[in-house]
Amino acid sequence: MAVRELTCISCPLGCPLQVEIDEAGQVVRVTGNTCKRGEVYGTKEVTAPERTVTSTMRVEGGAQPLVPVRTRGDIPKEKIFACMEAIRQGRVQAPVQLGDVVLPNVCGTGVDVVATKGVAGG
After folding, report:
1. Quick check: 90 and 58 in contact, CB under 8 A?
2. Would you say 79 and 49 are in contact if contact means Cβ atoms under 8 Å apart?
């Protein structure tokens, strides 16, 4: 049985987790957590890790050349580089409002990339 050691990031406590994994890759037990969120985080991190991506995207015709963006939810960890490339190649036309979807369904994840700040037209 394998054991992965993680630091939980679900809350500010940062509990040291030990996640026991059987030969089939299934989580058997999570220990070290002080709340239920730690167990959920440890299980998810070992079986299907996901992350939120934050970056900037180019703005055409805007008062600023870039707008800060983020994924509306978590995406699979293995799709982060493809997501970043899609954001890098993407362009959005000004004006941009806070919350505007600038890349729908990024990389087929079902998660949109949204603006986290507005940019006026230039």
Report:
1. yes
2. no
**Alpha-carbon distances, residue 12 vs 9, 17, 112, 118 (angstroms):** 7, 14, 27, 30
Distance CA 100, CA 75 (A): 18
Please give the model's pTM, rounded to 2 decimal places. Answer: 0.82
Please write the tens of the pLDDT for every residue from 9-63: 999 999 999 999 999 889 999 999 999 999 999 999 999 999 999 999 999 999 9
Whether 87 and 108 have beta carbons less than 8 Å apart is answered as no
